[in-house]
Amino acid sequence: MTDAPAAPVFRMEDLVALCRRRGFVFQSSEIYGGINGFWDYGPLGTALKRNLKDAWWRDMVACPPDGPDGRPLSIVGLDSTIIANPKVWEASGHVGGFNDPMVDCRESKARYRADHLMVLVGADDDGSRRMVGFLEGDDAGREKAGKSLAKYEKREFDPANYAIRPFTQLAATDLSRVLGPDAKEPGSLTEPRMFNLMFESHAGAIRDEDSKVYLRPETAQGIFVNFQNVLDSTRVRVPFGIAQIGKAFRNEVTPRNFTFRSREFEQMEIEFFIRPDEAETWYPFWRDLRHAWWRSIGLTGENLVLREHDRDELAHYAKEGAGTCDIEYRFPFTAPGFGELEGVAHRSDFDLKRHAEFTGKGEKSRYFDQERNERYFPHVIEPSAGADRGTLAVLCEAYTPDDSRPSGVVMKFHPRLAPVKAGIFPLVNKDGMPEVAEKLHRELRVKYACEFDPKQSIGKRYARMDEAGAPYCFTIDSDTLADQTVTVRERDTLSQERISIDRVATYLAERIDG
Ligand code: ATP
Prior knowledge:
Elements: H1 12-21, E1 25-27, E2 39-41, H2 43-62, E3 75-77, H3 87-91, E4 101-104, E5 111-113, E6 117-121, E7 131-135, H4 139-153, E8 163-166, E9 178-179, E10 193-194, E11 200-202, E12 212-214, H5 220-225, H6 227-233, E13 240-249, E14 264-274, H7 279-296, E15 304-308, E16 324-329, E17 339-348, H8 350-358, E18 367-369, E19 374-376, E20 379-386, H9 387-398, E21 399-401, E22 409-411, E23 422-426, H10 433-444, E24 450-452, H11 458-468, E25 472-476, H12 478-483, E26 485-490, E27 496-500, H13 504-513
Parallel strand pairs: 3-13, 7-9, 23-24, 23-25
Antiparallel strand pairs: 1-2, 4-5, 4-10, 6-7, 6-8, 11-12, 13-14, 14-20, 15-16, 16-17, 17-20, 18-19, 21-22, 25-26, 26-27
Helix pairs in contact: 2-9
Bound molecules: adenosine-5'-triphosphate (ATP).
Adenosine-5'-triphosphate is lined by residues 218, 250, 252, 261-262, 265, 267, 340-343, 384-386, 388-389.
């Protein structure tokens, strides 16, 4: 027996195939061969992702819980543009001199230019290849790499036995076998990433340097540059948050793993502004709230983890001490490791100060705290989540192979997120049953996404609903016409019971609205 947690019990290809077949996710512009790093959501996927975003908005903005002080959180919404004045990105630090592909070592925290990294490739007796990285031109490093390989292969180091490859030519699947130049365990090197990932375009008729604009790489800056506008136009006062859901674009060097690393994606971000000395209260509050939220929408198993960053992992804006963490999910393609769904960071006053500096407003743009009668730049706790990664995690969590069902698989979505809440079927498409079913459908769809399906055998219709993840199916049969009852079939337990047709709406309300 081993203590290692179980990896997901299905293959990613099977989920991707289901997503395409049932209209959750398609390749963007598929009829032209697609385009790397871009994905379209089909009818079911659109409903699923919308439900996720709506749940976030409702739970974080419209109806947030109480804060650590026992008072309801004050959070307002914003919808800022994708293209902004390019100075925004100078101030934020996104336009910089960094245009090189970089590789990070997660273990040693060292960072290398991808095009400077070489790999010594060995061959073990069993044919598996082990690779050790070293830096181009670093002979001592190469010697060390050779010794390390020889130790692994239990033979003398003879350079003739080994090939040298540029790191950039390795397949993504080889990464787990590469031992970083300063690492003790293989698999710690990230894929190369360009430092400047921003997409560029031009605003206006003339395409020159002056008309150059960027597609935003994060939604956060739209919030920072509107900080004063929100203060002036509402009654919010620190501590308060501004929330935004919107598209972000990053020209990722190696988009991969389905929608996980895309070039166009959606973020759900909150910048929560606090007094500078209160991060130690607010950071753990947000970390735990966001972790609990992902659990509340169905990521309840051991695949969801919270990982606090080490100090030397902190981003340039993160304040030492109050912490940064990732909320991570074990996807089939990251297992046994995890991939980031959301980062919760103490961003300090970095962004507000930078905008004060770059707009020339300086110290006089500090916030005035009436209660304390003092001026300061508020600090920020930022929970920044990905709507696409969230949707993907929800799809992975829901995917449940089940050979006993005709569909072979059932999508066990949390009822709140399920793209279809109920299937409504006439047992046969005659004898007055379709009319009753259609009437029920018309009534229910006002509040719940329901599908009326009169065609094919009842088994096939259940199978379709299992793949769509509909938690309930209601069937109208000849008894309905006599006694006004319908059969309700529950997706997860497969139990069936008869309830009065008048009670269907209440039945759904109790189970979906909670
Ligand atoms: P990674 O290290 O995986 O590139 P990141 O740390 O750069 O992610 P952040 O800048 O913290 O990501 O962005 C916040 C959230 O936005 C992430 O937690 C993730 O859910 C989402 N996100 C970031 N980049 C992408 C991408 N290329 N595709 C899809 N979602 C993304």
